[in-house]
């Protein structure tokens, strides 16, 4: 059901009221594996004069895996990553963290050439807002806040465009753990049945349907590891996603 709000010029919705947007490969058009490969290469280049880069990058991967495997809901992803990395590296936080922070602020913003940003993302977010949807960036929170906010800037968006952006400093789970989606709903104050998950990854994004969310699979940069396969309520290109929201068809009806 729709109700017009003449004062604000938007459409207020009843029913499914919240869209969760994945970022990499969805709003930010890109192939994730080449991006991560080149991003890590840049990080290694930045640190090589001060550290054993091969060892350091291997530890970053292992600490990331520790975040994904973590079953400690009282610890943020940042805490899990930091504890693992410092324990296994033998470094103090004072020795290495300022360099990580400097990389994300000085180098990472220049890596947009590794992605394929288009105007569709901003158009989609503006249209969803006009339609009265609440919105969250439900990106896998394995990156620091600076890196995620930077990727939003590449598509001319800011955290203020959304009700929530998941980052590793504040999140306690990662995709594809259903607890990640439960935490997102809790922070937004909504039920899973109020939400539509929009993403490009069969395993990490479409699992949201198991919690009662409707799902839209974006196919431009589709990622599918083969198993498990989850039911998809609607699928299409990023352009088709825009028109589905604008015309209120499919899961957005």
Overall description:
By secondary structure, the chain is of the alpha/beta class. The chain folds into two domains: 2-31 and 116-252, HAD superfamily/HAD-like (Rossmann fold, 3-Layer(aba) Sandwich), CATH 3.40.50; 34-112. The protein has eight helices and eight strands; from the N terminus they run βββαααααβαβαβββα. The protein has helices at 32-47, 53-69, 77-89, 93-106, 120-130, 145-154, 178-188, 238-246; strands spanning 2-5, 10-13, 18-21, 134-137, 164-165, 195-199, 214-218, 234-236. The protein has a six-stranded parallel β-sheet with strand order 5-4-3-6-7-8, sandwiched between helices. Strands 1-2 form a two-stranded antiparallel sheet. The protein is globular and about 55 Å long. Mean pLDDT is 94; it is low at 1-14.
Read across the widest sheet, the strand sequence of neighbours is 5-4-3-6-7-8
Count the DSSP helices: 8
- CATH fold category name of the largest domain: Rossmann fold
CATH architecture annotation name of the largest domain: 3-Layer(aba) Sandwich
Highest CATH level, the class of the largest domain: Alpha Beta
Largest sheet: 6 strands, parallel
The percent range for strand residues is: 5-15%
Overall pLDDT confidence:
94
- Total separate domains: 2
End-to-end CA span: 9 Å
Q: Give the CATH superfamily of the largest domain.
A: HAD superfamily/HAD-like
Structural class: alpha/beta
Counting DSSP E segments of at least 2 residues, the number of strands comes to: 8
Q: Give the proportion of residues in helices.
A: 25-40%
Query: Rough shape?
Result: globular
